[in-house]
C-alpha cells in the first residue's frame, strides 16, 4: 500500500475508520458544493461505501487520505480520469491542497507512463483553479457537468498538466 510523505502531510490509503471524518468533511456544504460527483448530504453509510470501494493506489487510479499528523484526516486527493481534491474547511488557506496534489503528481509521473493529468473545477471555484494554475495546469476547454450537491448543471473549466511541463517546472524549482 503506497504512502506518500510531504513536509507536513501523510498521504495514505483509506481505512474503514476514516469514514466518520470523511463524511463530516464532505457534509459541510461549503466543501460539498464544489465536489460535482458527490451527493449532498453525504452520510456516514455513503462514506463507508465510498472508502470501501476506493481504488488501490496504483499508477492508473489512486485515492489518498490527507492526514495531518496530530490532527488526522483533513481531506482527500484522488486521481482517476482526473485529479481532484478536497480539504475540510478548518484547514483551508494553509497550502495543504497544493502540497498534497504536488506529491501525488510527482508519484504519478514517477510510476506511470501517462503523458498528462487532467483536472476540472467549477468555473467559479477560484481557490481550486488557483491551486491547479500554481501546479502548472493549463486550461484546455470548458463543459457542463451535473453537480449532485447543487442539483443542476454547472460550467466547468477543464485543465491539463503534461508530463513535460511538470518536469520542466520541477527542474526550474530545483535549479
Automatic annotation (TrEMBL):
GO molecular function, one term: acyltransferase activity, transferring groups other than amino-acyl groups
Residue ranges of domain N-acetyltransferase in the record: 9-164
Record flagged with keyword Transferase: yes
Superkingdom of origin: Bacteria
Pfam families linked: Acetyltransf_3
Keyword Transferase attributed: yes
Keywords linked to the UniProt accession: Transferase
InterPro entries in alphabetical order: Acyl_CoA_acyltransferase, GNAT_dom, N-acetyltransferase
Name of the featured protein: GNAT family N-acetyltransferase
Source species of the chain: Devosia marina
Lineage start: Bacteria, Pseudomonadati, Pseudomonadota, Alphaproteobacteria, Hyphomicrobiales
